[in-house]
Amino acid sequence: MDKFMQAAIEEARKGLSEGGIPIGSVLELDGNIVGRGHNRRVQKESAVLHAEMDCLENSGRLKSGQYKRATLYSTLSPCDMCSGAVLLYGIPRVVVGENQTFRGPEEYLQSRGVELVMLDSRECKELMSVFIAKHPELWHEDIGE
Description:
Largest sheet: 5 strands, mixed
Mean pLDDT: 96
Number of helices: 8
Order of helices and strands: HEEHHHEHEHEHH
């Protein structure tokens, strides 16, 4: 597993340790991590702080040309909201840890020219599967249903 997905997994574990949902994300630009985040809906009582949104927020104000060279890494397939942010900023590539516990609008992203790389990570699947089994009410509160 590459260092960028490993960093996203570290973010997911951080979120879990804070009592949140274990989903993590990083934004890579020119071989460097420029932003990282994790799902903080529970911690911040937020409707929008999915891992990818937290990551983009923590990336600061990038220029459009920078987004067009970036890759977004996420431990879980991005939802409609997070996929919309990928399209809005023109991020050309998304690397997904797993899409078995949740599958976002992957075909739509691809139809809009986004390259999707599916890693089918056992570690990412295990993080979500264990969490969902232990906290189904929290998972189903948002996009899990």
